[in-house]
Amino acid sequence: MLAKPLNLDNTLKELMEFPDTAFPFGIWRDDFNETVGQILNYHWHETIEINLLIKGTLDYRLNDQRFVLNEGDSMVVFSNSLHGAALREKDTSAEMLTFVFSPDLLTGGNAGSIYQKYFQTLSEKGFLGKKFEGTSPIGQELFVALKDLVAIEDTAGYELRVLAKLSLIWEKIFVYLLDQQKTSISRRSEKNEKEIKEVMNYIQQNYMKRITIQTICEHAKISRSECFRIFARFTQKKPMEYINDYRLSMAVALLLNTSWTVDRIAQKCGFNNPSYFGKMFKERFNQTPKVYRMNQRKKMTDKKG
Q1: 278 vs 92, 211, 249, 251, 252, CA distance in Å?
Q2: If 0-12 CB within 10 Å is exposed, 13-18 middle and 19+ buried, where does residue 255 land?
Q3: Residue 123 burial by CB count (10 A; 0-12/13-18/19+): exposed, middle or buried?
Q4: Mean pLDDT across 50-65
Q5: 229: how many CB neighbours lie within 10 A of its CB?
Q6: In what helix (H) or strand (E) does residue 68 lie, and over which residues does it extend?
Q7: How far is CA 182 from CA 142, 147, 164, 179, 247, in A?
């Protein structure tokens, strides 16, 4: 299992790259540390994702909802749901297993009864996703089943064993949701979902340029008050706070993967004033960009050694 970098298209849709393109299933280990910080990287995909937190705690965002994942908790993310995760404030690390699969793997396509009964019904009800606490009976069952799924050896019959285990896991989830229909589950509210995807895409494409509230509003065709409202709803941040967060995440990648000067990185990430960039960076990571780069490269060298 490897860390899974996000490969997004221009609508924040993740372009899934499975180990075997003919078998749309994959398991990745996502490591969160001070490199990620508090930055929430939103994305979505047509596949279904199940997360299992195996270390630490995380802030998890599912559309406009916020959850805290503790060690042992799992999260089901249904198709086309915006989601992202980040370290909680003052935490230094966390590890999460991410299981991703296409419903077609279990159904053979959307024309059969399996798809219609166990996937389409959830889609029609606007199902968004569900957190399962590790201390609950269903959460404990999922923890064991997901760890068993990880342990399946890639030998003859691997795909058949994955299908069998994954079918049992989805059965547990579906039956639980069926029993809980009278209680509150996370359902999709399409209001503003299109707008927030459009705005975040605009920021991704233009973070290196001057962005103002006015340019965001003009691009998304929304009012200023609506802009602030949807940012507060989906990110719990003001627009410029979110933009600076995204710019800092890009700056971190450039610090670690290029030999560019700090001033050049600041400019490339939309910070026209290097001093302001240094101030923002230190507030986020408790060290200057130069010290951060030096410390992270030393850690990488020590690991290789």
Answers
A1: 21, 19, 14, 11, 12
A2: buried
A3: middle
A4: 91
A5: 14
A6: strand 65-69
A7: 22, 30, 29, 8, 43
> What gap in Å lies between CA 109 and CA 41, rounded to an integer?
30
pTM of the model: 0.69
With CA atoms as reference, report the closest residue to 247 among 197, 294, 206.
Answer: 206
- Residue-wise pLDDT for 151-210, tens only, equals 999 999 999 999 999 999 999 999 999 887 654 445 555 667 788 888 888 898 899 999
- Rounded Cα distance between 76 and 74, Å, is 7
Q: Which helix (H) or strand (E) holds 291?
A: helix 289-304
> pLDDT band for position 256 (50/70/90)?
confident
pLDDT at res. 3: 40
pLDDT at 285 over 60: yes
| Residue 49: Cβ within 10 Å count | 20
Distances (CA, A) of 9 to 33, 84, 270: 25, 16, 21
Closest CA to 247 of 204, 293, 289, 216: 204
Cα within 13 Å of Cα(119), Cβ side = 24
Indicate the pairing of strand 83-87 with strand 94-101: unpaired
Alpha-carbon gap, residue 58 to 70, rounded angstroms:
7
